[in-house]
Design brief:
Layout (H helix, E strand, L loop, with lengths): L1 H13 L3 H9 L14 H8 L2 H25 L4 H16 L12 H11 L1 H18 L2 H18 L1 H4 L10 H17 L2 H9 L12
Helix pairs in contact: 1-4, 1-5, 3-4, 4-5, 4-6, 5-6, 5-10, 6-7, 7-8, 8-10
């Protein structure tokens, strides 16, 4: 029952289609049919050219992830696993929104919001790696993918140390690894198309149809 409660809370929070609602009612735009078609902050900015709107959507999407963890902490204050389940559910429903025929964003904002509370070390690590990779390649998708992969590898090889920086504290390293693996897989599935483009066109530099 606890797992079901955590899953439902995360899924409901994550499924709020922030970009779709804001662009539909403020701009009369269906974001699923414009730009990259992704329902997230970057495509919202690409479509509207409004930094304010893009940032607002980013922070609300991040808040969905943060709340999915925070609410579970209030209910089950010592369970890392239940917090992780709630966050993964929020990210999944954000990426594959049930209200928008399973269209959604790429999950990074929602993931960042949740990990900022649950496992801040991995978020800091990801941001550092992302900045380094982006400075080298100048491609957002390339940086997203490699920062996520390298973060997973680093935490996997140092999980005994990393587990000390989880809140609530994870009781087993296997739980930590499974959480990060699930997070990586969900985000990777939303980067398949740009990943294929990068493989087929390795010399592409710059941002095309990016979405967070």
């Amino acid at each position: 029952m606890n797992y079901l409660i955590s899953t439902l809370i995360g899924f409901i929070l994550g499924s709020f289609p922030t970009a779709y609602v804001f662009l539909k009612y403020l701009k009369g735009i269906d974001v699923t049919k414009e730009g990259s078609g992704n329902v997230g902050a970057m495509n919202s900015f690409d479509v509207t050219k409004s930094k304010v709107l893009g940032l607002l959507i980013f922070f609300i999407d991040a808040l969905k992830g943060l709340l999915s963890v925070f609410i579970i902490i209030l209910i089950f204050p010592e369970s890392f696993v239940l917090c992780a389940v709630s966050l993964l559910s929020a990210i999944f429903s954000h990426c594959y929104n049930p209200w928008l025929k399973f269209k959604g964003g790429r999950g990074l904002a929602t993931g960042a919001g949740g990990t900022a509370l649950l496992f801040p070390v991995v978020l800091i690590l990801w941001l550092i790696l992302w900045a380094i990779v982006y400075a080298m390649r100048k491609d957002i998708h390339f940086a997203n993918i490699w920062a996520s992969l390298m973060s997973l590898i680093i935490i996997f090889t140092s999980s005994d140390i990393a587990i000390k920086y989880t809140f609530p504290r994870a009781t087993e390293t296997d739980n930590l690894i499974l959480f990060l693996l699930g997070l990586f897989i969900i985000i990777l599935t939303k980067h398949i198309e740009p990943l294929i483009n990068l493989i087929e066109n390795p010399t592409i530099i710059g941002r095309k149809n990016n979405e967070k």
